[in-house]
Amino acid sequence: MFTHAIVRPPAANLTQALTTSSPLGVPDPALAARQHQAYVEALTRCAMEVHRLEPAADFPDGPFVEDTALLTPRGAVITRPGAPSRRDEAALNRPAIEGYFDEVFAIEAPGTLDAGDVMMVGDHYYVGLSERTNAEGARQLGAILARWGYAASTVPLADGLHLKSSVSYLEHGHLLITEALAGQPAFALFTQVIVPEEETYAANTLWVNETLLVAEGFPRTLARLRDAMALPIITLGMGEFEKVDGGLSCLSLRFRPTRSA
Ligand code: CIR
Questions:
Q1: Is the CB of 85 under 6 A from ligand 1?
Q2: Among 14, 240, 243, 258, which residue's Cβ finds the most Cβ atoms within 10 Å?
Q3: 8, 20, 67, 213: which to mutate for ligand 1, most atoms within 8 A of CB?
């Protein structure tokens, strides 16, 4: 169970965020702010206490806080984001994280790691090797996780921005996964719910305390999820964030603090 989330609402500079999805158009910051507000309300409905950071004037990708830290039940890891324009977001978010965790480690150069590439399955962490996360970043993360008794393994990625752009852990041994990643041996022992090719964006969902947040507008994925599992589902409009490759998981850090207030 998670008890807390950290989020950062978007600013007007969301229009400058990194994207591989430019055919979808430029995001409307006012609509993005409303979609973000609905997201925060959904987290609150899932019994989360939400810590809102200030919109970041210097970081167009600032709302995608997930990439800047991996928060585990035993400690926090500050990442070193792979995109140079995002690197200093990690330092920006660090003080808020330090308020909740006793043990905080960091990925160092030449390692790079975006936590959107890290999927937690109980005590095992899958780390995607992507354009943002390199082998050295994954190695450092594995060494930090081992201190806390966790295991880690890497997954090579041929496409998609991050590992969790293509796969979500739904708990209870279930994965929601794209057709492209479904054959990956690392995921062979899971029950797989396959995302149809034309709905790939919907692969990024967010499990929060036995409720699943799913992007609105992907009916085939939704039907497959409902057939496969009995989890309550909340659908959320994500269109403005999709335009800059952001998904549901990217918009928050979820955790249970190890430090008492
Ligand atoms: C980026 O390219 O870094 C942002 N525009 C989107 C980040 C999405 N984050 C995530 O999937 N965890």
A1: no
A2: 14
A3: 67
d(CA 157, CA 200): 15
Give residue 160's pLDDT band: very low, low, confident or very high (50, 70, 90): confident
245 Cα–ligand 1 center, Å: 6
Query: How far is the centre of ligand 1, averaged over its atoms, from the C-alpha of 166 (Å)?
Result: 13
The verdict on whether omega for the bond into residue 110 sits within 30 degrees of 0, i.e. cis, is: yes
Ligand 1 nearest atom to the CA of residue 246, by list position: 8
Mean pLDDT, residues 209-234: 97
Give 247-258 pLDDT, tens digit per residue. Answer: 999 999 999 999
pLDDT 10s digits, 7-52: 999 999 999 999 998 899 999 999 999 999 999 999 999 999 999 9
63 C-alpha vs ligand 1 centroid, how far in Å?
9
Is residue 46 flagged as an active site residue? no
Structure confidence at residue 222 (pLDDT):
98
Q: Would you say the CB of residue 163 lies under 6 angstroms from ligand 1?
A: no
pLDDT given at position 261 = 63
Q: 179, exposed or middle or buried, with CB in 10 Å at 0-12, 13-18, 19+?
A: middle
* Residue 239 and residue 38 in contact, taking contact as beta carbons nearer than 8 Å: no
Q: Which two tokens stand for residue 101?
A: 């965790």
Rounded CA-CA distance 206/241 in Å is 15
Confidence of residue 5 (pLDDT cuts 50, 70, 90): very high
Whole-angstrom distance, CA of residue 145 vs CA of residue 150: 5
Distance CA 63, CA 37 (A): 12
Q: Is the C-beta atom of 155 inside 6 A of ligand 1?
A: no
